[in-house]
Design brief:
- It is a single chain.
- This protein is an alpha+beta fold and 218 residues long.
- The protein has a single domain, classed as Beta-Lactamase, CATH 3.30.450.
- It is built from 10 helices and 4 strands; from the N terminus they run H-H-H-H-H-H-E-H-E-E-H-H-E-H.
- A 4-stranded antiparallel β-sheet has the order 1-4-3-2, sandwiched between helices.
- It binds heme C.
- Heme C binds next to helix 4, helix 6, helix 8 and strand 4.
């Protein structure tokens, strides 16, 4: 499994298709070693995270990101003055959906940003900060895997970058141009003054080791 983990840790541009290649590559390493993928980590006394589950995590984060982009662009295209309600309907539903994805799959799904709007989304530890920093320095890296940090228990983390689109600037542009509800509600807001293409933050998925997930389900 060492090889599988190492292979998975290699940062890669993330598209669903590319992921399949990466996972197949990881599996191939396991197979070349003469081990069944499922048995690889078990041999080291640990249960593996099923590669199909890893693929699902990537797919779910791609869908989540597309949801936000489509919600933001629907607002942009509207000729009517956005009301308070429509203004709220971009990043809050994304937060709710992220939580639901976590519950449906037995994962922890978070949004993380150093320049956060909601303080719940501040980086939670050294790994969060390190990965954000890496995404900031390497715009070509879309997603990557990391082993769980010691306080998380056994499992893997998947991180996926969030970039700023022109449509985000309605609420994440200059400080003064933020909608009134943002100014009122987020006293400690740091999520403004972005430009298209900037790193906005990341999705962070913690996938617990299979055994733990089964225990939770049972
Ligand atoms: C209609 C206003 C609006 C638009 C447009 C908007 N956002 Fe947000 N964004 C918000 C609000 C409000 C929050 C805080 C939500 C909460 O409390 O969880 C937020 C939070 C976030 C967060 C979570 C981290 C944090 O800072 O709390 C990310 C990531 C994010 N936005 C990215 C984007 C991206 C990327 C776009 C464009 C595709 C975008 N937003 C467009 C209003 C908006």
């Amino acid at each position: 499994m060492r090889h599988v983990v190492v292979t998975l840790r290699v940062a890669w541009r993330c598209t669903a298709r590319r992921l399949t290649g990466v996972l197949l590559g990881a599996l191939l390493v396991g197979l070349l070693l003469g081990l069944q993928p499922a048995a690889v980590q078990a041999a080291a006394g640990e249960a593996p995270v099923d590669p199909a589950v890893l693929a699902r995590a990537v797919d779910q984060m791609e869908q989540l990101d597309r949801l936000r982009i489509s919600l933001a662009s629907s607002l942009e295209g509207s000729s009517e003055e956005p009301t308070m309600d429509t203004m709220r309907e971009v990043c809050m539903p994304v937060g709710k959906r992220a939580m639901a994805i976590g519950l449906e799959n037995g994962w922890t799904v978070r949004q993380v940003a150093s320049r956060y709007r909601n303080p719940d989304h501040a980086p939670a530890g050294a790994q969060d900060t390190g990965v954000i920093d890496l995404f900031a320095r390497h715009p070509e890296i879309t997603g990557l895997w990391e082993p769980a940090s010691p306080d998380q228990g056994a499992g893997v983390n998947y991180y996926r970058r969030i970039d700023v689109q022109p449509s985000c600037l309605a609420c994440h542009g200059s400080k003064d141009s933020r909608p009134a509800f943002v100014k009122e509600r987020y006293a400690d807001d740091r999520a403004f003054d972005f430009r298209p293409g900037d790193l906005r933050g990341m999705y962070a998925v913690f996938i617990p080791e299979l055994q733990e997930a089964l225990q939770q389900a049972g």
